[in-house]
Amino acid sequence: MELGQTGISVPAMIIGTSSLGNLYEATPYGQKLELIMATVESYPQGVVYDSAGKYGAGLALEALGQALYDLQVPKDKILISNKLGWKRAPLLEAGPTFERDVWKELTHDAVQDISYQGILNCFEEGNDLLKGYDAQLVSIHDPDEYLDQAATSKDYDKRFADILEGYAALDELKKAGKVKAIGVGSKNWKIIRKIYQHYPLDWVMIANSMTIYDHPEELFSFMGLLEKEGVGIVNSAVFHSGFLVGGEYFDYQKMNKADPETQKRFKWRERFFGLCESHAINPAHACIQFALQLPGVNSLALNSTSTRRIQANAVYCENTIQDSFWNACKEQGLIRDYLSEFKLNKTE
Questions:
Q1: Euclidean distance between CA atoms 154 and 143, whole angstroms
Q2: Is the terminal CB of the chain with fewer CB neighbours within 10 Å at N or C?
Q3: Considering only CA atoms, which of 136, 132, 6, 15 is closest in space to residue 81?
Q4: Phi, psi angles (nearest 5°) of residue 183
């Protein structure tokens, strides 16, 4: 499948690498090596990895580069997306100062650095950590979080100008032939739309925003516009940090079961699991196919700590689900009414 109009071919599953950065738990390098080996075996024609300097304060990039080097994977079989905007810093406390209690046993901290020079620095640092496997897809990571830190409207405008300066740096990298395509990765899709109004992106990565659990109609319409204008879409975090497949985290936060919103999520998941069981469908398969069939989606970025799940997810990406299941989801109110006429099975 082609990523928008970039001319870049991508498989239905892009391999997320946040687990390589010790997300939620620290894992030994040998286990990470096995994960990368499984991805290479699942996609012998070529693998696309999604990483970021924020993941484990560069540990994910470092582990990915080391594993590819140790496995002697040819560079022409690898395409790496690096979301830029976070760089390594000395670890001065017991744990990192960003996303506390999420990343385990790190030896570095990370700080946000979004500016013209900051983005160039992040790009160079990322390639150094990758041990020669240079990133070819680049984007600015978490611009929504950067803007959320604004203390005043003037500060917000200054921060948005920093983001646009960062894109000027990425544009120079592309014109120099150092990267192939420029995008954005954000949990707040409205910030993607705001940036797109100022900069002609090649692709976007939407995270935690367009899933079987939560699929805003306004975002659905925006995705239709991106598809029409030839912008590639990668849908990410479609399990809401594993919650939709049985995990205890939702969007990177451990849930408080006394919270009414959390209780609502558990009730939804119970109904979802029941429906999946009655149709003999794995919940992960349902999450993947819903997210993959939406307008303009070229690929999903999926992360796992299990070689078995990586292999299973690759299969789920290729196998569609019968309309009877989607109709049942609509009838039981698991899918919003506006999708009643949308066909969630492009290949039938």
A1: 16
A2: C
A3: 136
A4: -140, -160
Could you give the CA distance from residue 245 to residue 238 in angstroms, rounded to a whole number?
10
Q: Taking the model in full, what pTM does it have?
A: 0.90
Q: Note whether 107 and 74 are within 8 A (CB).
A: no
Going by C-alpha positions, the residue among 310, 341, 328 that lies closest to residue 31 is 310
Among 41, 1, 2, 39, residue whose Cα is nearest residue 17 = 39
Q: Round to whole Å and give the CA distance between 39 and 312.
A: 11
Phi, psi values for residue 345, rounded to 5°: -160, 85
CB distance 234 to 264 below 8 Å: no
Q: Which of 253, 344, 245, 339 lies closest to 292 in space, CA to CA?
A: 344
Q: Residue holding tokens 């569609």?
A: 320
Which segments of the chain does DSSP mark as H helices, in order?
29-42, 59-71, 116-129, 143-148, 153-175, 189-196, 217-228, 260-278, 283-292, 307-318, 323-331
Query: 307-318 and 29-42 helices cross at what angle (nearest 10)?
Result: 20
Opening angle at CA 54, ends 36 and 25, nearest 5: 60
At 260-314, the pLDDT tens digits run: 888 999 999 999 999 999 999 999 999 999 999 999 999 999 988 888 888 899 9
Contact of 278 with 334, CB cutoff 8 Å: no
